């Protein structure tokens, strides 16, 4: 399975945190489909998307499309809430 990131996602990554975000993306890919690993990463379903934590302040919103996990948003809890309100 591949990791893909939208333009919106890439634009939301805070300066200097690219490595941390990429590590969280890789961890989400590794844990995807293995429910026992979800809790440690903060993976949770928010249909039709999924969310994972990246540190204390960032959330990554993604969904599976064909053979890839597509990351749509990197942002705060409030940004995720607004994104979901407009994209469900």
Strand order of the largest sheet: 1-5-4-3-2
Structural class: alpha+beta
Q: Strand-residue fraction?
A: 25-35%
Order of helices and strands: EHHHEEEEH
In terms of per-residue confidence, which ranges show pLDDT below 50 for 5 or more consecutive residues? none
The overall average pLDDT, rounded, is 90
User: Could you please say which CATH topology applies here?
Assistant: YaeB-like fold
Q: How many beta-strand runs?
A: 5
Number of helices: 4
Globular, elongated, flat, extended or rod-shaped: what is the shape?
A: globular
Distance between the termini: 24 Å
CATH class bucket: Alpha Beta
Please indicate the count of domains: 1
The major pleated sheet works out as: 5 strands, mixed
Radius of gyration, Cα only, in angstroms? Answer: 12 Å
CATH architecture title: 2-Layer Sandwich
State the CATH superfamily name.
RelE-like
DSSP helix fraction: 40-55%
List keywords for this structure.
88 residues; alpha+beta; YaeB-like fold; 5-stranded mixed beta sheet; 4 helices; 5 strands; 33% strand
Question: Could you explain how this protein is built, in words?
Answer:
The structure is a single chain. The chain has 88 residues and is an alpha+beta fold. The chain has a single domain (2-87), classed as 2-Layer Sandwich (YaeB-like fold), CATH 3.30.2310.20. 43% of the residues lie in helices and 33% in strands. It is built from four helices and five strands. It has helices at residues 7-12, 18-31, 35-41, 77-87, and strands spanning 2-5, 44-46, 49-54, 58-65, 68-75. It has a five-stranded mixed beta sheet. β3 and β4 form a beta hairpin. The longest helix is centred in the N-terminal third of the chain and has 14 residues, at 18-31. It is globular, with a radius of gyration of 12 Å. It starts with a strand and ends with a helix.
């Amino acid at each position: 399975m591949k990791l893909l990131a939208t333009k919106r996602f890439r634009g939301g990554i805070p300066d200097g945190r690219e490595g941390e975000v990429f590590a969280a993306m890789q961890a989400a890919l590794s844990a995807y489909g293995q429910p026992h690993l979800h809790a440690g990463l903060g993976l949770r379903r928010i249909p039709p998307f999924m969310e994972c934590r990246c540190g204390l302040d960032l959330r990554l919103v993604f969904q599976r499309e064909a053979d890839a996990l597509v990351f749509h948003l990197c942002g705060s809890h409030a940004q995720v809430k607004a994104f979901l309100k407009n994209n469900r």
